[in-house]
Design goal:
Naphthalene 1,2-dioxygenase Alpha Subunit, Chain A, domain 1, single chain, Rieske_2Fe-2S, 4-stranded antiparallel β-sheet, 18 strands, alpha+beta, Rieske_2Fe-2S_sf, Rieske Iron-sulfur Protein, 8-stranded antiparallel β-sheet, dioxygenase, Phenylpropionate dioxygenase, large terminal subunit
């Protein structure tokens, strides 16, 4: 049997997949982005979001189905999120507030109230772009595909995070940074800025800096600093008692999580980066834990998280003063190796999608050394 000719399919995919964007520009497509906690998407709700420079409606039917649509009515461009969920004989639909056009959660048009019976108009031909959505571990993820028609379907599932324990997220904080997601990611994984940007008595300072050696290895769509004992100058870990062991993982397009084990107890600190526009990124930090100390320390942890976010936000604003001039940036080993990996991962992701082949992780196992 002659194998099928896959060249036309690959050519079509390559034609619609943009080339790898320069650092600080463009977005990772054909990927899952965190958009909300499940508990924040109430039945019967409609909420407007902006993701990757696109208006997106996130909603939940009264029967419990989460959905995502482009938040523009194709009739006169009114935001569908300003409408309401109704059931007027076609099942649950989203009713536009301007002229009452109704759309199913899959994006298909169900009704146009202004039509009279004698007017032959194929309502089913009208569609709003639908974005695939998944709920997993109490989180809502949206698939941002490369096909602008929204016809593509996910070929992989959202990440699964270890340590989601304790009956739901115990602490959630977020902030919007005036930054492209690339710069936000690099700031998130930068191991050398802590002693200078985050100088708290309970964390560390530049006076406690010393050389560190950490082993890294590739992981699905990313890499991990393999499980190890926390650094001796990271004082916050001491409140957990015992002998904590931590592993820090990064995954495209913008997830970083630290999983801490202390005996049979766990703490998971997950950071999700969600690009709003090319110049604005939402950073959400979510914590789970079944460790008894977490309940006692939660008020202090919240203060610490907010302080860290504000300090990082202040540094982003300072950095933007220089980035306005589009300077060349210098990346050094080993402190900036993770930043280099991120750029390599992005390039390989775009290239593998364009060529219609499996993603090949460019990260190799290595031990990195730096001072912090």
């Amino acid at each position: 049997m002659t194998p099928p000719d896959t060249a036309p399919v690959a050519a079509a995919r390559e034609a619609r997949t943009p080339p790898p964007a320069p650092f600080g520009k463009g977005f990772v497509l054909d990927a899952w982005y965190f958009v909300a906690l499940s508990r924040d998407v109430a039945p019967g709700s409609l909420k407007r979001h902006e993701l990757l420079d696109e208006p997106v409606l996130i909603g939940r039917t009264r029967s419990g189905e989460v959905f995502a649509l482009r938040d523009i009515c194709p009739h006169r461009a009114a935001p569908l999120s300003a409408g309401r969920i109704v059931d007027k004989g076609e099942g649950e639909t989203i009713e536009c507030p301007y002229h009452g056009w109704r759309f199913r959660p899959d994006g298909g048009c169900a009704a146009i109230p202004s039509l009279v019976e004698s007017q032959a108009f194929e309502t089913d031909r009208i569609r709003v772009r639908r974005y695939p959505v998944r709920e997993s571990q109490g989180l809502v993820f949206i698939w941002m595909g490369s096909d602008p028609r929204g016809a593509d379907e996910p070929d992989h599932e959202p990440p699964q995070f270890p340590g989601v324990v304790g009956g739901g997220a115990r602490l959630v904080e977020w902030m919007e940074f005036d930054s492209h997601i690339d710069h936000a990611v690099i700031g998130l994984m930068d191991p050398a800025h802590g002693p200078f940007v985050h100088q708290q008595w309970w964390w560390r300072s530049e006076h406690s800096m010393h050389e560190k050696a950490k082993a890294f290895e590739p992981r699905e769509h990313g890499f991990a600093m393999v499980r190890h004992a926390p650094s001796s100058n990271s004082r916050a870990y001491r409140i957990l008692g015992g002998a904590p062991a931590t592993e820090i993982t990064f995954r495209l397009p913008g997830y970083r999580w630290e999983h801490i084990q202390v005996g049979d107890k766990q703490v998971l600190a997950l950071t999700c980066l969600t690009p709003i526009t090319a110049a604005r990124t939402r950073i959400t930090q979510i914590f789970w834990s079944d460790h008894w100390v977490f309940g006692l320390a939660k008020p202090f942890l919240r203060l610490g998280v907010v302080a860290f976010l504000r300090q990082d936000g202040g540094m982003v604003n300072l950095q933007n003063e220089g980035l306005r001039y589009d300077p060349a940036l210098i990346w050094i080993d080993d402190a900036d190796k993770q930043a280099k990996w991120y750029q390599q991962l992005k390039r390989e992701w775009a290239k593998s999608r364009a060529e219609g082949r499996p993603f090949v992780n460019p990260v190799q196992p290595v031990t990195l050394r730096w001072k912090s």
